[in-house]
Design a protein that fits this description.
The protein has 135 residues and is α+β, with helices and mostly antiparallel strands. It is built from 4 helices and 5 strands, in the order H-E-E-H-E-H-E-E-H. The protein has helices at 9-20, 60-70, 93-102, 124-127; strands spanning 32-38, 43-47, 76-83, 108-112, 119-123. The protein has a 5-stranded mixed sheet. The protein is globular. The N and C termini lie far apart (31 Å). 41% of the residues are buried.
Length: 135
């Protein structure tokens, strides 16, 4: 699937898998990576970063979004998430809501397993129907 910027979703998926290598997951041992494509063609990666106080843990998707926003990006075309061994991980509810702040309901979300060929493709609207907005 082409994202309209010349960056293919398969390329984003590989970038997400590579980002998972940097995950800091000493407690769960569950590594996740994300690759977020901005409207201007830049790609921002993120990984999960755990903390002994689990509530302070940050997911890969939010790490990528926060990095992107801190660099001036505000609109995104697609995201790929890599996590799970056999079955791909999907974004948690908090990540879905953060993505909805900067992405439309038709934004492609590709979830891939860290190893193997398992792939699940969604739109953000499918993952988060009835999104909360203050606008």
């Amino acid at each position: 699937m082409d994202t309209g910027t010349g960056v293919d979703m398969a390329v984003l998926a590989e970038m997400a898998r590579k980002a998972a290598d940097s995950a800091y997951a000493p407690y769960s041992r569950y590594k996740v990576g994300a690759a977020l494509l901005a409207d201007d063609g830049r790609v921002f990666t993120g990984c999960n970063i755990e903390n002994a106080s689990y509530g302070l843990t940050n997911c890969a998707e939010r790490t990528a979004v926060f990095k992107a926003v801190s660099e001036g990006a505000r609109c995104f075309r697609a995201i790929a998430i890599a996590g799970g061994d056999d079955e791909p991980a999907t974004p948690c509810g908090a990540c879905r809501q953060v993505l909805a702040e900067f992405c439309g309901p038709e934004t492609p979300v590709m979830c891939v397993a860290l190893s193997g060929d398992a792939v699940r493709e969604y739109t953000l609207g499918e993952l988060l129907p009835g999104v909360f907005h203050l606008r």
